[in-house]
Design a protein that fits this description.
disordered C terminus; 15-stranded mixed β-sheet; 15 helices; globular; Phosphorylase Kinase, domain 1; Leucine-rich repeat, LRR (right-handed beta-alpha superhelix); disordered N terminus
Length: 894
């Protein structure tokens, strides 16, 4: 307040006196000064001691009292001090996407009695969520996702009777879901809550019956990626308002409740990757259902249900490995919205007949590993996967089973220019260039699967942009790319361009973050969160804006080239600057850190083109999910195997980065040697030593012409085991292969085994003994403990190696005619203990030394619990003992 007495009222002996007094409440001022002292990177205008009067950036007041702190995405770092509790009139606190904020929340955070919105998404806060949080009686929005909170969900949250949004996803929370009893509150008391987002934690125990009731207003229940067990409570069917349910990737058992089909507002239903049994649920009446995933549950074998053809809004049906059998009804393919159908690994039979009036939206049909006898595709020319069906043995299947490949539906880059190309290549801005703010909208559920149709992204232009423009000078909101990540979340990488100035100020960035993270904006799709790429172009007197804009723009080029989710990106300014003028792929990788390469050479596209005779058909030696493999030859005469990634393949890009980083650090005679790589002219290629005798699977099947007697098989087992033991015990850091199978064990001139294909591999960094990660691998070799817990360890490789050992004995694939080799061997050994009845008939019985000991070792590797399996070092020792005892070393080069 400024108090100014008029001159006429002052005594003659005094001159004019003007006293300036700050209007900010003294207690609020002290609290904000404490924040300024303890935080790094606070706004530059936090210099005057009057935050309300001087309008500190991010601080909003009503008179002298601070009511809102909105500082999303402003690079803050430090703790959240107890002094913030002095802001007794605070109504909204948004510090989201400040990854430098860390430490525990104030124990007495419940003293902020007027707080209505607490948004701390995407920071590094840790410790327990304080019980006092239940004292925030006016709280409607609680967003604590993507932090490092531990311990149980506080029972006291049940006291927040006005709560609408509860988002605690992506933390380290454990314990059970809290419900009320006579003395304590629980989540069942949150009758106004519309959103329970509790996925990606470590919650365990049953889902309580009492958690749900007909009085609730829930729209979303997100509990994916936890360790929940027991059955799905039938009380879930009482919540008639529900639109989205995600219970996938837990340990749920039992029968799906019959009354689930009464949820007629349901749009997305995810129950995949559990242990649900009994009949496939009857979903008749769910006419608004668009996305359904029931995959990988041991349902009773059952004919295709009638409701398949009645869900008129269905876009996506995923029922991989669910016991389906019988014929697919022809009318099913005519559902008007149908885009993706994945029914692989079932028992479908008969003929698949796609009618002339099939859905014009249908893009992918995956029917691999069924018992289909015929396929009538008619005019359907989009992606069809039919491998491992009897139909594929027929001559007429040659042009279908082998040549129709899946188009890349998991990633999309629109052919739309958000700004002139010069804006992304020059270090200085032209007159029509802007510095965009980059971020990702990550949808935890969504109602479509065809990412290539731009109509799904029109809400960015028609809804989000007008809302932002009403509060922030935003010129454009543009889609950079879209993809489906490892959690089956839809990731929309977005650029926000400023209006007028060349860059956003902190207020602009913070308001964009608040509108999205506090869910002021309601998207037409399911629940989402917003994660940004740190904005480095804030104006300030000490910054060289031209340099910052030029270098950070190159980060946007990275997004266009690498199609990576910007949510995980970090940029080092100098590396990004070099990337503009360099053709070195490593400076374009997400973290901006060049890996330490040992002996891996860089090849230009012309080099590779020349050594493969312009990628001629005669140079082709194989094909995989990554792409085509070619044989090449250097001028020195060295033979090469060159894996060329399919254009636009996210999997290829990930494998490219992963294999170079891992293989450049490992050197062992039983691990395939990486010669170099090519990252040039939009191509991604990996260059290996050429291994002449193909892979073990081809040898066992007779395709490669290599004859493997029992002694050779023992030596191959030893070589592969030594390669794996090296990766687990001597590589730095240790490496888990994650896809051990006979296809990934190559045989050189002397039939020495070499472990290959590291596209799915994971390093065990920071002395960890496991990694929590999405389950990936190959059906038949997959460790059941890893499948159930998502905890990846070296013992997952041991399990896969045990399956390979059984392949060496039997010559069979792990899964043949819906029979699993592990179960067959276990039952045979249990019933008669005769391992000889299992042996590949191509092996001479005279040669079967130490067979029973070898099978016994394989079964040790296949124990259900990883703790009971031997290490690969122990496996090596046991195989060595078998070989030494029978004097095989003298026969083969070792």
């Amino acid at each position: 307040m400024i108090k100014n007495q008029s001159m006429s009222s002052l005594p003659a002996r005094f001159s004019l006196v003007v006293v300036v007094v700050g209007i900010t409440d003294s207690a609020d001022l002290a609290a904000l000064m404490s924040l300024k002292k303890q935080w790094q990177n606070t706004p530059p205008n936090w210099v005057k001691h009057d935050p309300c009067g001087r309008r500190w950036e991010g601080i909003y007041c009503n008179g002298s009292r601070v009511t809102d702190i909105i500082l999303s995405g402003t690079n803050l770092a430090g703790p959240l001090p107890e002094d913030i509790l002095s802001l007794s009139e605070l109504q909204s606190l948004d510090l989201s996407n400040n990854r430098g904020l860390m430490g525990p929340l104030p124990t007495n955070i419940g003293s902020l009695k007027n707080l209505r919105s607490l948004v701390l998404v995407g920071c590094k806060f840790s410790g327990l969520i304080p019980e006092s949080i239940g004292q925030l009686e006016k709280l409607t929005n609680l967003f604590l996702s993507s932090n490092q909170f531990i311990g149980p969900i506080p029972h006291s949250i049940g006291n927040l009777s006005d709560l609408v949004w509860l988002d605690l996803s992506d933390n380290l929370l454990n314990g059970t879901l809290p419900v009320s009893n006579k003395t304590t509150p629980g989540l069942d008391m949150l009758l106004k809550a519309q959103h329970f987002h509790l996925g990606q934690n470590r919650l365990s125990g049953d889902i309580p019956l009492k958690l749900f009731s007909s009085q609730m207003a829930l729209l979303h229940i997100i509990l994916n990626d936890n360790q929940l067990s027991g059955t799905i409570p039938d009380t879930l069917g009482l919540v008639r308002t529900l639109k989205v349910i995600r219970l996938d990737r837990n340990k749920l058992t039992g029968i799906v409740p019959d009354n689930l089909n009464t949820l007629t507002r349901m749009s997305e239903l995810y129950l995949a990757n559990n242990y649900l049994n009994g009949p496939i649920p009857d979903l008749t009446g769910m006419n608004l259902l668009a996305y359904l995933d029931l995959s990988n549950n041991p349902f009773n074998p059952q004919n295709v249900p009638l409701w398949f053809g009645t869900l008129i809004n269905l876009t996506t049906l995923r029922m991989l490995n669910t016991g389906l059998r019988g014929n697919l009804p022809t009318g099913f393919f005519s559902l008007p919205q149908l885009q993706t159908v994945v029914l692989a690994n079932n028992q479908l039979n008969g003929t698949v007949d796609i009618p002339a009036n099939f859905s014009s939206n249908l893009r992918l049909l995956d029917l691999r590993n069924n018992s289909l006898r015929d396929f009538q595709g008619g005019a359907f020319t989009n992606s069809v996967l039919l491998g491992d069906n009897p139909f594929c043995q027929n001559p007429e299947a040659a042009g279908i089973c082998k040549t129709i490949q899946p188009s890349n539906l998991s990633n999309f880059i629109p052919q739309l220019n958000c700004a002139p190309l010069s804006c992304f290549s020059d270090s200085t801005l032209g007159s029509d260039c802007k510095r965009p703010y980059l971020g990702s909208l990550v949808f935890r559920s969504y109602n479509f699967s065809d990412l290539t149709k731009t109509l799904y992204y029109n809400f960015l232009r028609d809804s989000l942009h007008p809302l932002l423009a009403s509060q922030v000078p935003v010129d454009r909101v543009c889609l950079v790319s879209s993809s489906v990540d490892s959690n089956d979340f839809l990731v929309l990488n977005i650029s926000f361009f400023p209006l007028g100035d060349a860059f956003f100020n902190r207020t602009g960035v913070s308001k964009i973050g608040n509108i999205l993270n506090n869910h002021v904006f309601d998207t037409p799709y399911g629940p989402y969160y917003f994660d940004d790429l740190t904005y480095a172009a804030f104006p300030g007197p000490s910054k060289n804006i031209g340099l910052i804009i030029g270098t950070t723009i190159s980060s946007f080029v990275l997004l266009l080239l690498a199609v990576c989710a910007v949510v995980y990106a970090r940029r080092q300014r100098q590396i990004a600057k070099q990337a503009v003028n360099s053709n070195n792929a490593f400076v374009l990788w997400n973290q901006g850190k060049v890996p330490q390469l040992k002996g891996a050479s860089w090849f230009s596209f012309e080099d590779v083109k020349q050594c493969t005779n312009n990628f001629s058909a005669g140079s082709e030696i194989g094909v995989g999910g990554y792409g085509m493999v070619y044989k090449g030859k250097l001028e020195t005469g060295q033979l090469l195997a060159i894996k060329r990634a399919k254009q636009g393949s996210i999997q290829g890009a990930d494998e490219f980065k992963n294999e170079i980083e891992l293989l450049s650090r490992v050197h062992h005679r039983n691990v395939v040697n990486l010669i170099g790589f090519c990252y040039d002219k939009g191509e991604q290629m990996l260059v290996y030593e050429f291994i002449p005798n193909g892979n073990l699977r081809e040898a066992l099947s007779g395709k490669s012409g290599v004859k493997l007697n029992w002694s050779r098989r023992l030596m191959i087992a030893l070589g592969a085991a030594r390669g794996l033991a090296y990766l687990h015990e001597l590589a730095d850091p240790p490496i888990v292969h994650r896809d051990i199978k006979s296809d990934n064990i190559l045989l050189d001139h002397h039939l020495n085994a070499k472990v290959a294909d590291f596209g799915l591999s994971k390093p065990l960094t920071d002395h960890r003994d496991h990694i929590t990660t999405q389950v990936k691998g190959t059906l038949g070799y997959l460790d059941p403990e890893y499948y159930m817990t998502q905890l990846l360890t070296e013992k997952s490789d041991v399990y896969g190696f045990g399956v390979v050992m059984l392949e060496l004995v039997t010559g069979r694939r792990p899964i043949r005619k819906n029979k699993y080799i592990v179960r067959e061997v276990r039952e045979t050994m249990r019933d008669n203990g005769n391992a000889y009845s299992l042996v590949d008939p191509t092996i001479s019985y005279v040669d079967l030394i130490s067979l029973e000991e070898f099978v016994e070792l394989a079964m040790k590797c296949l124990q259900g619990s990883g703790e009971k399996r031997p290490s690969m070092g122990e496996v090596v020792k046991e195989i060595e003992d078998l070989i030494q005892a029978n004097n095989i070393y003298s026969v083969y080069e070792f």
